[in-house]
Each structure stands twice: as structure tokens, then as C-alpha cells.
Amino acid sequence: MATSRPRRLHALDGVRGAAALVVVFYHVSLIAQPFAQGGTAEAVWETATETPLKLGFAGTEAVQVFFVLSGLVVTLPALRAGFSWPAYFASRLVRLYLPVWAAILFAVLLVVAFPRDPAQVTPDEWILHANILFPDWVLALREATLMLTSYDTVNTLWSLRWEIIFSLLLPVFAAVALLLRRWTWTAAAACVALMVVGRVFDGRPFDLDALVYLPTFLLGCLIAVRLDDVIAWARARPRPALWAVVAFVSALVLIASWWTRPLIPRSSLLGDALWGLAGAGAAGLILVAICSPVADRAMQARPLRWLGDVSFSLYLVHAPILATLAFAWGDDQWVLVGLVGVPLSLAVAWAFFRFVERPSHRAARAAGRRAQAAFERFSGRGDGASDDARDASPDPTRG
After folding, report:
1. Distance from C-alpha of 118 to C-alpha of 120, rounded to nearest angstrom
2. What are the boundaries of each domain within the chain?
3. What's 2's DSSP letter?
4. Distance, CA of 268 to CA of 262 (rounded, Å)
5. Cα–Cα distance, 173 to 349 (Å, whole number)
6. Cα–Cα distance between 305 and 299 in angstroms, integer?
7. Quick one: pLDDT at residue 98?
8. Helices (H) and strands (E) in the chain — how many of each?
9. Which is nearest to 25 in space by CA: 341, 353, 252, 398?
10. pTM, to two decimals
11. Which ranges does the record mark as transmembrane (predicted)?
12. For 298-343, how does the pLDDT look when each residue is reduced to its tens digit (9 = 90+)?
């Protein structure tokens, strides 16, 4: 079933922006966590984390939203006639790596300018274990490959590793999604089952992160190949109550491993299984943003659209900024770190978007054109690919 739809799904910009801000709040909460022990502070922490309030700072789960978004919007151009794979690979890699390298340089320079004293922060916590204490250029170069499993210079880069893997495997993902197009619901259920298995058995005894994250991208690919059908179905059934229920259930599924903790310990097999459902919740929320007129209008609000524009930049720069403030003032001043660090991260993200990310977009388009021209010379083709095909390589949060 075909239907007219906008060339760009603007509501997804708002989803992306909201998810990026949630990740920022999540890292502020990690700085605050050591001080949520005993009395009123612990009660407040449990209320915030073991209820649906967790949605406001569910950082790892917000990354699952990014992964579904990437699966959806990176696949869409690949489904169009004239799509150029050589242009895609060149453009996509340039668009991912250039901002990452700039973010790593920014993070190291922050440590050079503002030396970090480990005595200023709580031992054995995120602030100390996931952030560098001194300029380490060798580590920075290693992390710049995006091939490591953990990152300390820019903590958020762990997710970019999966973006790179997905980007390189896009032909496989797109082909699988097309082959399973007639059995979308069955394929989606299989993806969720794989994610649950990955969470439950990760580290018992094997590392199964690939089962946790790669099926999340495939959920987005499955939405992409059925997008016109999904939009047509939703337009024929404009039911606000239905989409409100889907949004509510999806949000609860996204953070199921959190609000169930009073009854189901996180370290249990069932707790891990609930955590494995996060990708399904992320996919549900994205479907709501696409299909619900109410959600579409909400996600196109100007502040969220602006956040969507700078979301990748915000994702890259905020953790080094928060860490710098926490080491400078002490993590016991986490309220001040948050009050200063969040708006400062937004301001730096805007500058980073303007002076790093936008130029990287232009460099990516140029790289795509050169790759396509080289491919045509090598293959003897002279017809070329469309501009859409050459430029179809969005950033990992933009899709």
C-alpha cells in the first residue's frame, strides 16, 4: 500500500532531541547517585528511579531510541531508486567520524585546561571510572577508531561503535527487512526475543551485546520497509485514545526493568529479561510519533526541533563538560553541576553543531560525490546516482 508522506518526518527530530536531553539528565543523575543514601535522599532517589519518573533520565534506554531511529531513517534512502552504495559508505563514515574526532579533541583539551583531581569525587563511581583523569593521547587515538568496547575520553562513544557496525552492515539489514516484509510482526517479535536473550545471557559466560543492540536497529529497518503502509493505516484510524494507550504502554516497556524493581531485583534473570524489552518500547514510541497527530504536533514544538538539530553534538560534548565541572567543584556539588552543566552543554552543543557538525555534513556530501565518481570511472558507468543517493547518510541521532 502506497501513500503520500512528507519527505522528512519532522516529529522524529523532536523525538531525537528529547532522547538526547534524557541522556544528559541521566549523566547528571549518575553524578548525584552516590549522595542518594539514607533518609529522605534515598526515598527521593527510589521514587525517581523505581517509578515512571525514570523516563526523565533513562539514558541507556534513550540510546535504544537512537538505534531504532537510525534503523528507520538510514534505511529509508536505501530503499529509493538510484541509491548509491559507494556514496553512502563514504558519506556515512565521514559524517560519523569527523564530529567524533572533534569531540575527543575537545574532551582532551578540557582535561589539559582543567586538571582533574580524583580526590574531588566519590571513589568507585561513574564519574571516576568512566572519565579520564589526565590527557591520554594514545587512548584518544584508540577511541577515535570507535572499535573499543568502552570509552573514557568521551563516555558516550560506546554507542557510536554500534552505529558504525550497523552502518557497515546496512546492505544486510535492508535486505533482511525487505525479505521479511510480509512477516513484519513475526520478525519484530523475533528481534525482541533476541534482545531479551542477549540481556539475560550476556556475560553468562559470553559477551552477547550484539544480540542486545543490533536487533534494535533491525526494528527500525522493519518500520522503514513498511512505513507507507503504517502511515496509511494510521491515517485511516485517527484514534487519539488508541495512540495514547500505545504511548503509555511503550513508555512503561522502555523502562520496565526500573519501575518493577520493588518486586523484581535488577540482578535477577527476570529483571534482565525486562531490561531486554527496552528496544520494543523504543520502537513503540517512534511509531506513536509517526502515527499520532497529537504526538506529531507535540514533537514538532520549536524547542524540541532545536534540540533535534543539535542532538548529536549535545550527545558528544555533554559528558566531558559535566565531568569537568564535577572534578572542579566536587561531585557533592551535583546540583550546581547540573544547574550550570546542562545549559552550558546546550550552548556548547549549538556551537559544536554550527562549527563542526555542519561542516562535517558538507565534507560528507563531498566525500559521497567523489566516491560515486570514482565508482563510475572504475565500473565504466556514466549515468551517476541521484543527489539524494549521494547525500543519504545522516548522523546517528538524526538518522
Report:
1. 5
2. 11-31+46-391
3. -
4. 12
5. 31
6. 7
7. 98
8. 20, 0
9. 341
10. 0.94
11. 12-32, 62-83, 95-114, 160-180, 185-201, 213-234, 241-261, 273-294, 306-328, 334-353
12. 999 999 999 999 999 999 999 999 999 999 999 999 999 999 999 9
pLDDT digits (tens, 9 = 90+) for 140-152: 999 999 999 999 9
Q: Name the pLDDT band for 398 (thresholds 50, 70, 90).
A: low
Q: Which of 1, 2, 8, 14 is nearest to 295 (CA)?
A: 14
Angle in degrees, CA 244, 304, 314, rounded to 5: 125
Q: Is the peptide bond before 205 cis (omega within 30 degrees of 0)?
A: yes
Give phi and psi for 58, each to the nearest 5. -90, 80
**3-class SS at 241?**
helix
Residue indicated by cell numbers 485511516: 236
CB 39 within 8 A of CB 333: no
Q: Residues 30-72: pLDDT tens digits?
A: 999 999 988 899 999 999 999 999 999 999 999 999 999 999 9
Q: Are 396 and 160 in contact (CB under 8 A)?
A: yes
> Is pLDDT above 50 for 396?
no
Helix axes 209-225, 278-291, angle to 10 degrees: 20
Is 151 exposed, middle or buried (CB count within 10 Å of its CB: 0-12, 13-18, 19+)? buried
- Which amino acid, 14? G
* Whether the predicted pLDDT of 7 surpasses 60: no
